[in-house]
């Protein structure tokens, strides 16, 4: 059974129908949203009608209000005022399993992002795909090691044993010469200049949140505008470089993916399950192992036939 997550936006000075939120409310329920409800309970100087309505709703229901670390505000207006319109509500049974934090606002918006992590131990039967960074591989060392480990390998009648030795040698060479891992949240256009502008913007935002002065808010908007302009220019330059370097004759797969993406088509690898001896195989590793066993069996039959014929 999954979690029931509700995202909500309540316009300013609007009295919401909160009773509908309690329908099907259970121990796996979460509510996140911008309630625009002023209450001293979450940092406002005074409570409004909507805020009092929210307080009564929380106190009269099986609902917990999850406060931010240190009661941090979630919104910074252009005038410098800080407020707390964004709330996180959970069922009491789920509250101990919630990790809650605030992320920096994206772009020029003043709203911080509520990030919620539900702590739960999960198990997956799917095998994780091993990724390798081939751009940072030491190919000269890899060639030398493979020649030493596999070059003098003696092939005999036992093909399975020879195959195991070859696979073992390739894996050992790959572990020594090809680093594992892949880029997370890769941004091809990102550079040192953008990183510097982002750090300046973050410092300006922190100053505006602490001081609340109009001049600091003006500086924040200027830093935001400079960063947005630089990001747009970097994206255009990166895209233009990609088009110039793309060779449609030699790099057909990437060209096909690129043109398909422009046409709104998603290219996904075909992962059809197969059934072997009444067992349904779904993971890539199990399917590959089944194919290897099949072809090894065919190869052994051929070898036995040749031996009987005296070849």
Summary keywords:
Endonuclease/exonuclease/phosphatase domain-containing protein; 10 strands; four-stranded mixed beta sheet; 311 residues; 42% helix; Endo/exonuclease/phosphatase; alpha+beta; 7 helices; catalytic activity
Query: Beta-strand level of the residues, as a percent range?
Result: 5-15%
Strand order across the biggest sheet?
A: 1-2-6-3
* Largest sheet: number of strands, sense, barrel closure: 4 strands, mixed
- The general outline is extended
**Distance between termini?**
62 Å
The stretches of 5 or more residues where confidence is low (pLDDT under 50) are 123-127
Count up the helices: 7
Order of helices and strands: EEHEEEEEEHHHHHEEH
The Cα radius of gyration reads 30 Å
Number of DSSP strand runs: 10
Overall structural class, as computed from helix and strand content, comes to alpha+beta
Mean pLDDT: 80
Q: What portion of residues is helical?
A: 40-55%
Helix and strand arrangement:
Layout: E1 4-9, E2 29-34, H1 49-59, E3 64-65, E4 75-76, E5 82-83, E6 86-90, E7 98-103, E8 113-118, H2 139-150, H3 159-177, H4 192-211, H5 214-245, H6 252-262, E9 274-276, E10 279-281, H7 284-309
Parallel strand pairs: 1-2
Antiparallel strand pairs: 2-6, 3-6, 4-5, 7-8, 9-10
Domain Endonuclease/exonuclease/phosphatase: 5-100
GO molecular function: catalytic activity
Pfam families: Exo_endo_phos_2
How would you characterize the overall build of this protein?
One of its GO terms (molecular function) is catalytic activity. Residues 5-100 form the Endonuclease/exonuclease/phosphatase domain. This protein is of the alpha+beta class and 311 residues long. Helix content is 42%, strand content 13%. It contains seven helices and ten strands. The chain has helices spanning 49-59, 139-150, 159-177, 192-211, 214-245, 252-262, 284-309; strands spanning 4-9, 29-34, 64-65, 75-76, 82-83, 86-90, 98-103, 113-118, 274-276, 279-281. It has a four-stranded mixed beta sheet with strand order 1-2-6-3, with no helix packed on it. Strands 4-5 form a two-stranded antiparallel ribbon. A two-stranded antiparallel sheet has the order 7-8. Strand 9 and strand 10 form a beta hairpin. Helix 2 runs antiparallel to helix 3 and helix 4 (192-211) runs antiparallel to helix 5 (214-245). It is extended, with a radius of gyration of 30 Å. The protein starts with a strand and ends with a helix.
